[in-house]
Structure formats: C-alpha cells, structure tokens
C-alpha cells in the first residue's frame, strides 16, 4: 500500500511540475532577425480596367524571400501578453512571368495579443505594412510605394532568459495603387508570408 501511495505521489509531482515551474516573462523590449518566404497574386489594371492580354497572366503569381530586423515591446499580466512590433525587411518578391517586376523594402507595424504557456508564447496580430514596387516598365512608369493591412498569428519559444526563437504567419492585402508615371498601370493583390526568427529580450 505504501509503495502504491509513493508511486501515486511521484506521478502527481510530475503531472503538476509544469504548473510549479517559474513563469516566463515576456515583458519588455526585444529585437532580432528574421527570414521569410512570401507568395501571392497581383491583379493588373490599365486605366482602372482589368488588363487582358495573351502575353501576361492576370492575376499574376509573385514569390520571393526577405530577410530583416524587428523591434518590439510587450506588456504582460499573468498569462496575457500584448504589445507592438515594427520590422524592416529586404529582398525581392518577383512576379513569376516578369522577374524584372518586383517588390522590396517591406516594412511592418503590428499590434500583438497573446497568451503565455510556460516557455511558449502564442499571439495573434493586426497591422499595417508598406513596400516599394518596381515594374518592368520602371523607365517610363516609375516606382510606387504601396501599403495595406495584415492579419497573422505567431509562436515564440524561450531558449533562456534572454534568447528566443519563433515563427510567424501573416496574410497581407493591399488595395489598388497606380505607378507614379506612365500610361496608367496599376495593381492590387494579396500575399502570404511565413517567417522564422530569432530574438533577444532586453
């Protein structure tokens, strides 16, 4: 009987040990580096009319990689975690059929809300992003800074008191923008982004 009681006691200790573990604190400033893969579709317009031509797929696929830096600040109350983050990434997200048409210099601002589970942090995010679009007709069309809204969710995991790793998915939507000059080319679309990252808590 004593042996049975001892076994039950040991099982209960192991079962409840995560609850007795020290809470992870996510509060404060943090920063780090990220790499992301991005894919989406653009709809192309000429003078606000959907452009149809045999030589160009429309909507057109777009994909590419970005690398960047991020900086944020979080507040924490018990398991509830919330705050804001900014990031800047570069690389080229190219149009599949016209590689000389690409977007770059993508910047994000997002509000984060989530919950801490021991060493893990699960968050949702809502934000605004901007980037620079360069078309293949850049000599006559110019470039265009564009922007839109993003919705996402992420997962971070604490390695130690200072270091963490994580991943984040976001869905970005941007309304129609026209290039700064030329015959009236414009575009609108959406993009999926999957990011892996490593950071440092101050």
Strand order in the sheet with the most strands? 1-3-4-5-6-7-8-9
Helix content: 10-25%
How many helical elements? 2
The CATH topology comes to Porin
CATH architecture: Beta Barrel
Shape verdict: elongated
Element order: H for helix, E for strand: HEEEEEEHEEE
In short:
By secondary structure, this protein is mainly beta.
3D structure, described in words:
The protein starts with a helix and ends with a strand. The longest helix has 19 residues, at 2-20. Strand 5 (102-117) and strand 6 form a beta hairpin. It has helices at 2-20, 138-141, and strands at 28-46, 49-50, 60-77, 80-95, 102-117, 120-134, 144-158, 163-178, 185-201. The chain is built from two helices and nine strands. The chain is mainly beta. The chain has a single domain, classed as Beta Barrel (Porin), CATH 2.40.160.20.
């Amino acid at each position: 009987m004593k042996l049975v009681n001892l076994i039950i006691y040991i099982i209960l200790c192991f079962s409840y040990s995560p609850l007795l573990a020290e809470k992870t604190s996510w509060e404060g400033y943090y920063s780090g580096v990220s790499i992301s893969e991005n894919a989406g579709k653009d709809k192309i317009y000429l003078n606000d009319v959907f452009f149809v031509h045999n030589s160009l797929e429309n909507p057109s696929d777009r994909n590419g990689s970005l690398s960047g830096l991020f900086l944020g600040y979080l507040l924490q109350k018990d398991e509830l975690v919330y705050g804001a983050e900014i990031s800047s990434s570069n690389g080229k997200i190219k149009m599949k059929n016209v590689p000389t048409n690409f977007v770059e210099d993508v910047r994000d601002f997002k509000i984060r809300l989530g919950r801490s589970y021991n060493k893990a942090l699960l968050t949702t995010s809502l934000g605004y992003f901007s980037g620079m679009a360069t078309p293949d007709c850049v000599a006559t069309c110019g470039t265009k800074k564009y922007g839109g809204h993003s919705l996402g969710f992420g997962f971070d995991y604490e390695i130690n008191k200072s270091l963490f790793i994580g991943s984040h998915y976001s869905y970005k939507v941007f309304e129609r923008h026209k290039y700064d000059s030329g015959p009236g080319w414009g575009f609108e679309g959406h993009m999926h982004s999957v990011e892996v990252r490593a950071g440092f808590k101050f």
